Amino acid sequence: MSVADFVTRRRGRRWHWTDIAAYSYLALGVVLMFGPVLWLVLSSFKTQAALLEFPPSLLPMTQEEVMVPGQGDKPLPLFKVTMDDGSVRTLAQVRRVGIQAQMVDPKDPGTVIRVPIERREPVRKFQLALENYTKPLQQFAFTRYLANSVFVTVVATLITLISNSMAAYALSIYEFRGRNAAMLAVIGTLMIPITIILVPVYMVVASLGMVNSLWAVILPGAATPTGVFLLRQYMLTLPRDLIEAARMDKASEWQIYWRIVMPLSLPALAVLAIFSIMWRWNEFLWPLAVLTKTESYTLQIGLNAFQGELQVQWHYLLAMTVVTLAPVALVFVFLQRFITTGIANTGMK
Amino acid sequence: MKRMAWLLGSAIALSVAGASGAFAQTTLRMTWYSDGNEGEVMQDLLARFEKANPDIKVVLDQVPFKAINENLPVQLAAGEGPDIARVVDLGGVAKFMLDLRPHLKDAAYFEKNYGPFLSWMRLPGDTTSIPGYMTQLTVTGPFVNKTLFEQAGVALPGEKATWADWAKATKQVADKVKAPFPIAIDRSGHRFLGMAISEGAKMFDAKGEPAVIDDGFKTAASMVVDWHKTGVMSKELWGSVSGATYRGANDEFKNAQVVMYMSGSWQISQFDKQIGNAFDWVAVPNPCGAGGCTGMPGGAALVGIKTTKNPQAVAKVMEYLASEPVAQEFYSRTLFVPGHVGLAQKGIDYPSASPLAKQALGVFGKQVGQVSQTAYALQGYTYNRIIFNAVISRVGQVVAGEGTLDEAYKRIEQDVAAQIAERKK
Amino acid sequence: MSGKAASGGIGDRFGGVLSAPYTLIMKVLDIPMRAVQNAIGERRMPYVFLLPNFLLFGLFVFLPLILNVGYSLTGGSKLYLSERPFVGLGQYATLLDCTNHLQPSTCREDHFWRGVYNTITFVVLQVVFMVLFSLLTAVVLNMKIRGRGFFRAVYFFPVLLSPVVVALIWKWILQREGLLNGAITTLGGEKILFFVEPGWAMFWAVFVSIWAHMGFYTLILLAGLQAIPADIYEAAEMDGTKKWRAFHRLTLPLLMPNLIVVIVLSLIKGVQTFDEVFVLTGGGPGTATLLVVQYIYETAFSNQVQNFGLAGAASVMLGVVLFALTLLQLFFARKGEKPT
Q1: Which of A331, B34, B338, C289 could lock C281 by a disulfide, CB 3.0 to 4.6 Å apart?
Q2: Rounded mean pLDDT of chain C?
Q3: Touching check for A96 and chain B: CB below 8 Å?
């Protein structure tokens, strides 16, 4: 088999231009979709100073430092210096006065060399600023926030799945009086973001005495119209004869719901579950309004405390963002399998 | 999964109960935001307080600053607020503040040392209440990258230089060293109004009602808008975001891209930590105009909240934190300009600060004494944030190319009048 | 396939771990539910199924919406409705007070109108390109390609990120000293200040929002594509139908229900957009990317006078328009669904 044959061989078919186009599109996609996230992760390991650099370095780098005998007990930063004769030397900087730097050769600490500052380039090496992670993790009640976030996410997603699927079941399988009105209510509220009714919702929650309780975060968003809509659209495509057959067998309506309709709707449920998990895990504005006590904070609130009035502590903020991403990524890896197989197994639509 | 949720739920419930139930203790909640290390320092101080007063426990609830201006007022109005809070919009929160006076052992101490700033925390007409103390006094003023001046071979304008002098000099420097920002000013009405007052803006009419637009204000506004046209300022700050959104150039300054940065004393601590030895930065006195050479005072206050069930305990905490040695330690470790008259006169030692930072703290300390009466009056005005927001929002639009200055003047007056009317309803 | 799922239950695919508790709980619930069914009859059962959802709905959506109408009819800066002075339709009049409604600068609340027009631009661009790109991606991912699972994961991944994180990442990339300008200058170009040019700012707002949500919509379309039986194409191929024609004539109509879901959901998400764009552009330059939800949020919270009345009126108006829009969409959706 010739090389050309090998390269162009493709499951018994020859390469078509659409294949090449598809692979280039996917390659571009990988860079575009993954690149920024990778960039975030890399940046989270940079020191505060390195974050500000331009042009930004891809990897977290810090300036190399050396101990020079006779120059105090602090390590001195290393620079590559272009000398008058054009040669390049590696020197350690003792101090800088105005636009002149006083430098020494670490091998010959006795002689001080004066260098204009624009002639020096820092010598850098790869180093992870792990303190971006360790310091805030020690400082704030990370495990408490994590437990709160997990609790909110899990409970809220379960409630959403059950209440939404029940409503969707009713709206898709039955003909009943008020169905159109109920559907209208779902669709009508589909578009109302909680952001614009924050104050009235807060008033309701406050009068129920739920401020600072995690239920105040869980319940208001649990009955998502989006979920009802999504599940209903899916359930509409289920074969009716199955349900009729079950009724003939004297199955109760509740049994039809949980034994037949729910398993058949699994792909849609998985999609909603992912949606709900993401949404709850990342929710910020609403929890910020109803949770004011440290012990009830979710991760998103804890992490945003690094945003001050006049300064943002970027290095901590980025690092903690990565920390909050990790569990979600794990969940995704787990659920992704169900989605793919779920969709693949669904022969109907 | 249900089981797991239940387990988690009960674990959380238990630990919450455990945190508060050790013995008959009063638990106070303090809502706090941080720009730098002040949260850590406060935590230390509170731990010491709790050791000395085992019957009082203070929980520090650290929130994003956003929550202080946006959510806290709603929580306070609903009666769901904390016992103590660190706030910035003193006039706005004043109606929710607790008067500590009846609970203090030594009210005279507060009056003597925090007196000038207490009026900022009071509602109009109130002359006696003591709601809290200043965790930080700030004053606005410019920082200059001295190294860039040296590299360009341009002399620093002197003590009484005007804004025009600075604009000329910084533009020269920026052109030579290829810095993109000759002058950067925080996108904030507070910063701008300091400049406007220096240019002669009076802010209030004879009856003490706000009269924002006058010749001094117009001079300053057209100066700033012109700078954007001539390249002295970059649109990136004032022309980039909408409304009253704050935008600073602190990161750009640390990166040696700004020749002169008009901001304020609160930047010193981060500049000191992050610029290190990269270049020389200095604080310079506020440039002068027809109205003087003033900055705007400001700051954050720690105040008691009216709805607390334990005003005695609140007063005890506040008395401890405001006491001279504790306050001194707080200011000194955070590199804040003291909001304490006695300490300001004595001078505060900042052992952790570099010589550059000490110089800057000195310059700003001196600036406090030169703040004009108009600036003090504006800072003490209950509805000042309405003015700050309206000014920056509208002038920002002009900078971005949406409309003219004359339209902006009209809008500012309209916005201010409409909102004050709403507030008084 | 359906028989297997029905008999094996959820356990088959969700792993034994979740199956047992699920079955147990559902079986226990069957006892009261059967009693209810016996009492009220099968035909009234849908109301029982609707109950939990609508209980939550009523408490946390409908009631607040009604309260919101209440707020919109009052003025002042107090929080409790009972303490707020009634102003009738005053807040609405303030919002609608314009010499020329097409010219925001002639309006009393000019930022509201700028927000409205910006939102329209943003949503239209976002929906059109969202549909195009998610369709394209779904079609590509539906081809016989190696590493399909991996590529699907790649496109879906950004959906996991919170809007704030998405905006933060892209702000880091797009700012003056960011990665993109770094790349441009390395290639010899001039730095571009993306957030100072209104056109660029809107472009990136749309781009970033598509970047963040495309994976979700791709998934929906992919499900639809995979549900189309392969024999349809084989038949078409035998008839000598060209690929493009087959796509146009067969795929698109069969995909219509999924496309409608995508259009409806992306439109809704588009109108609701707030923190993503706000963190990215801050609504600027000037007011070029100020969206109407940001206006409402800022009016209610960011100003010293938290104007719940005006914000309430704006949100009621937004709600009415949105409701009408959705109905219109649904009407067309019905028409589109018929042929399938």
Answers
A1: C289
A2: 85
A3: yes
**What is the pTM assigned to this prediction?**
0.86
- DSSP string for residues in C189-213: -----TTTSHHHHHHHHHHHHHHHH
Task: Report the DSSP beta bridge partners of residue B337.
Answer: B137
Select the residue of B60, B75, B276 nearest A292 (Cβ to Cβ).
B75
Cβ contact, residue pair C160, A166, below 8 Å: no
Query: What's C276's domain CATH number?
Result: 1.10.3720.10
ipTM of the shown complex: 0.83
3-state secondary structure of A70: coil
Say yes or no for a CB contact (<8 Å) between C111 and B411: no
Q: Which of B4, B58, B75 to mutate to test the interface with A (most CBs of A within 10 A)?
A: B75
Domain residue limits at C117: 109-302
Provide φ and ψ at A88, rounded to 5°: -115, 125
Q: Which of residues 122-181 of B touch C (CB under 8 A)?
A: 180
If one looks up domain B28-137+299-346 in CATH, what number appears?
Answer: 3.40.190.10
Q: Do A349 and C224 count as a contact with CB atoms less than 8 A apart?
A: yes
Contact criterion met (CB < 8 Å) for B11 and A147: yes
Which residues in chain C have their CB less than 8 angstroms from residue A255's CB? 30
**Beta A108-116 vs A100-105: how paired, if at all?**
antiparallel
Provide mean pLDDT across the span B244-265. 91
CA distance B4 to chain C (A): 11
Give the domain B139-297+362-424 fold.
Answer: D-Maltodextrin-Binding Protein; domain 2 (3.40.190)
Task: Tell me how far apart the alpha carbons of residues C205 and C213 are, in angstroms, rounded to a whole number.
Answer: 12
Q: Select from A99, A142, A207, A269 the residue whose CB has the most chain B CBs within 10 Å, as the one to mutate to test that interface.
A: A99
pLDDT tens readout for residues C201-255:
999 999 999 999 998 888 888 878 887 887 777 777 777 777 777 787 788 888 8
Determine which of B119-128, B286-295, C218-227, C230-239 has the lowest per-residue pLDDT on average.
C230-239
- Sign of the four-CA dihedral B230, B232, B234, B235: negative
The structural domains of chain B, with segments of one domain joined by +, span: 28-137+299-346, 139-297+362-424
CATH class of A132-345: mainly alpha
